[in-house]
Specification:
eight-stranded parallel sheet; binds 2-acetamido-2-deoxy-beta-D-glucopyranose; Immunoglobulin-like; 2 domains; alpha/beta; eight-stranded antiparallel sheet; TIM Barrel
Length: 488
C-alpha cells in the first residue's frame, strides 16, 4: 500500500527555490497545548448532500457514487455521512401506495422537477447506505400529516437515520409561493413554525433527538441557530438532534480559493456554532458548495474550487462545525459535483486530501490565523499525538499566467528531536487553478487519480520524503497546491 519513492524523489533546498521567506508553524507535541483552539472531530466530518429528487438516480444509476464514497471509507474506516434534501424536498409528497422510488416529469433532463412524489422504497433505499443519513422532508406545502407519514417511514426504513429536516431554506418560501408562507413570513414566524413542527412531528413519530433544525441559506444572525435556540422551550429542544445552515460563498476562482476569504467566510457562523454547542448540540453545514444553483461553469469544476473544498471543509471542522455536506444536484447538470456519470470533478480531489488529513483523527487545530494566503492544519490521534499536517498555498496560479509558478516554503518545527525524515503527499494539478478533469488536466493526490465514471483510484501511491533536522523541516508548496505531511 505505502510506497516510498526514496530520498531522491524530493530534495528540498529550503531558501534557494523560493522568493518569499518561509512561513513557520510549530506543531504541538500534544493536543490541547501551544495556545491553539482544538476542535473535537466527528468520525467522518466530510459528507455528501444529494438533491432530494436525484437521490435514487445517484444510488442506482451513477456508477461512481458507491466507489467515491467507498474510497473515503477505505481511508477512514467510516462511511461518509450523507444528507438527502434540497429545494425539491419542499416540492415532494409522500405516497404510501407508490411502488416507485420517486416519480416526476421534467421538460429537459437538465431540469429539477417542480413537483414530485415518492414512495416508501425511497426510504428503504436510503436505509441500504451504511453511513449516517439525514433526510429532508416538506414543510413548505404545509401538509403536516403527509410529512408525519413520511417521517414515520423514514424512521422505520432508514436504518442509519441520523436526523430529519423539516423544510429546506425556508427564507425563500415567500419567493417560492409555498403555502406555509402565505401570510406573514419572516425569521420570527419561521422560528415559531419550526418549533411547532419539530414538536408535532417529533411527538407523532415518538422519537426525541430527531430533528436537524435551521437549514437556512441566508446568512445569520437574521436567519440563524442562535435566534432559533433562543425561541425554543425545553420541550421543543428535546426533539432537536442538531442545527444546520447552508452556505454557497461564490465569487471568482481566485477569491473563492483564497485562504483568508475562506477563513472569514467560516467566521460568519461563529455565534451560531457557539449557541448550538451551548445548547449541548452539534452544528453542521447541512448543504454547501462553491456557487449556488448547481455551481458556476467557470468556477465550480476547477482545481481552484477543489482547493477551496479542502480548505473550507477543514476550516469548518477546526471551527467546531461537526460535518460539512457538499451538495450534488441534477445528474448531468451539476458544475460543482465531485463526480458524475462520465467524468470526475476536480473538487473530489480536494475533499479527498481533507479526508486524508482527518482519517482516524480525534482533534483538529488550525495553526494559522486565517489572515493570509498560507494555511496549516494539524490533526491529532486518540492518544493526543500529532497525526498529520496539511499545508496549503492559496496563491493563485494558472497555466495561462505569464510568470512562472512560484513556490512558498513552509517550515514546520516541533517534529520531534529523534526524527530524521517525514513523508508527504502532494495535491496538485499542472494547469493550476483553472485545471479541469473534463478538459484533460487531471489533478493528482500522492501521484494518484480517479477514473472517469468509475471513481476507481489509479496510479501508484507516491510519498515524497523530506529531511528533518533538529525537529524541523521545510516543505515547498507551489502556488495553488497543498501538501499532506504524515507524522505517523
Ligand atoms: C439512468 O441513466 C441513463 C443514462 O446513463 C438514463 O438514460 C436513464 O434515464 C437513467 N435512469 C434513471 C432511472 O435515472
Ligand atoms: C413549547 O413550545 C411549543 C412550540 O412553540 C409549544 O407548542 C408548547 O406549548 C411549549 N411548551 C411549553 C411547556 O411551554
Ligand atoms: C471548539 O470547541 C472546543 C471545546 O470542545 C473549544 O475548546 C475550542 O476553543 C472551540 N474552537 C473554536 C474555534 O471556537
Ligand atoms: C477524463 O475524461 C476527460 C475527457 O472528458 C479526459 O480528458 C481525462 O484525461 C480523463 N481522466 C482520466 C483520469 O482518465
Amino acid at each position: 500500500m505505502i510506497k516510498l519513492t526514496g530520498l531522491a524523489a524530493l530534495c528540498v533546498a529550503a531558501a534557494a527555490q523560493t522568493v518569499d521567506a518561509a512561513v513557520t508553524f510549530n506543531v504541538p507535541s500534544k493536543v490541547g497545548t501551544g495556545g491553539y483552539a482544538y476542535a473535537p472531530l466527528d468520525p467522518a466530518p466530510i459528507g455528501i448532500s444529494f438533491e432530494f429528487f436525484a437521490f435514487p438516480s445517484y444510488f442506482l444509476n451513477v456508477t461512481g457514487t458507491n466507489q467515491c464514497l467507498a474510497n473515503w471509507k477505505a481511508l477512514t474506516g467510516v462511511w461518509p455521512p450523507i444528507r438527502i434534501g434540497g429545494t425539491t424536498q419542499d416540492r415532494a409528497s409522500y405516497d404510501a401506495k407508490m411502488s416507485a422510488y420517486v416519480v416526476y416529469s421534467v421538460a429537459s433532463a437538465a431540469d429539477a422537477p417542480s413537483t414530485l412524489t415518492f414512495g416508501p422504497k425511497f426510504m428503504t433505499l436510503a436505509g441500504t447506505y451504511e453511513g449516517s443519513v439525514v433526510v429532508g422532508l416538506n414543510r413548505g406545502k404545509n401538509n403536516i400529516d403527509n410529512t408525519i407519514a413520511a417521517a414515520k417511514v423514514a424512521v422505520a426504513e432508514t436504518t442509519n437515520l441520523l436526523a430529519i429536516e423539516l423544510g429546506n431554506e425556508p427564507e425563500y418560501y415567500v419567493k417560492d409561493k409555498q403555502p406555509i408562507a402565505s401570510g406573514t413570513w419572516n425569521p420570527t414566524t419561521d422560528v415559531a413554525s419550526q418549533n411547532n413542527w419539530n414538536l408535532r412531528v417529533g411527538s407523532a413519530v415518538g422519537k426525541k433527538h430527531l430533528i436537524q433544525a435551521g437549514n437556512w441559506n441566508a446568512a445569520p444572525p437574521e436567519w440563524g441557530a442562535a435566534n432559533l435556540i433562543a425561541a425554543e422551550n425545553a420541550t421543543v429542544k428535546q426533539y432537536v438532534h442538531h442545527y444546520a445552515h447552508h452556505n454557497y460563498p461564490g465569487g471568482s476562482i481566485q477569491s473563492l480559493m483564497n485562504h483568508a476569504t475562506t477563513s472569514k467566510n467560516i467566521h460568519v457562523f461563529d455565534a451560531d456554532v457557539a449557541a448550538a454547542l451551548g445548547a449541548g448540540k452539534q452544528y453542521v453545514l447541512g448543504e454547501t458548495n462553491s456557487v449556488s444553483g448547481g455551481g458556476a461553469a467557470a468556477v465550480s469544476p476547477t482545481f481552484g474550487a477543489a482547493l477551496w473544498t479542502m480548505d473550507y471543509a477543514l476550516r469548518a471542522a477546526a471551527s467546531n462545525i461537526s460535518r460539512t455536506y457538499f451538495h450534488h444536484g441534477t445528474v448531468g447538470n451539476c458544475q460543482y459535483c465531485f463526480w458524475g456519470r462520465y467524468t470526475m470533478g476536480a473538487p473530489y480531489y480536494g475533499a479527498t486530501a481533507a479526508v486524508a488529513l482527518l482519517a482516524g483523527a480525534r482533534h483538529l487545530a488550525a495553526l494559522d490565523k486565517g489572515t493570509n494566503a498560507y494555511a496549516a492544519y494539524a490533526s491529532f490521534d486518540a492518544d493526543g499525538d500529532p497525526l498529520r499536517v496539511l499545508l496549503y498555498n492559496s496563491d493563485y496560479f494558472t497555466s495561462g499566467d505569464a510568470t512562472a509558478r512560484k513556490s512558498q516554503a513552509f517550515t514546520l518545527t516541533g517534529l520531534g528531536e529523534g526524527r530524521t525524515t517525514v513523508r508527504a503527499k502532494r495535491l496538485t494539478a499542472a494547469g493550476g487553478a483553472t485545471a479541469r478533469v473534463d478538459r484533460g488536466d487531471n489533478p493528482s493526490f500522492g501521484g494518484q487519480w480517479f477514473g472517469n465514471g468509475t471513481c476507481v483510484v489509479a496510479g501508484t501511491e507516491t510519498f515524497e520524503t523530506v529531511v528533518v533536522e533538529g525537529g524541523q523541516a521545510t516543505f515547498q508548496v507551489k502556488a495553488t497546491e497543498a501538501l499532506v505531511v504524515y507524522l505517523q
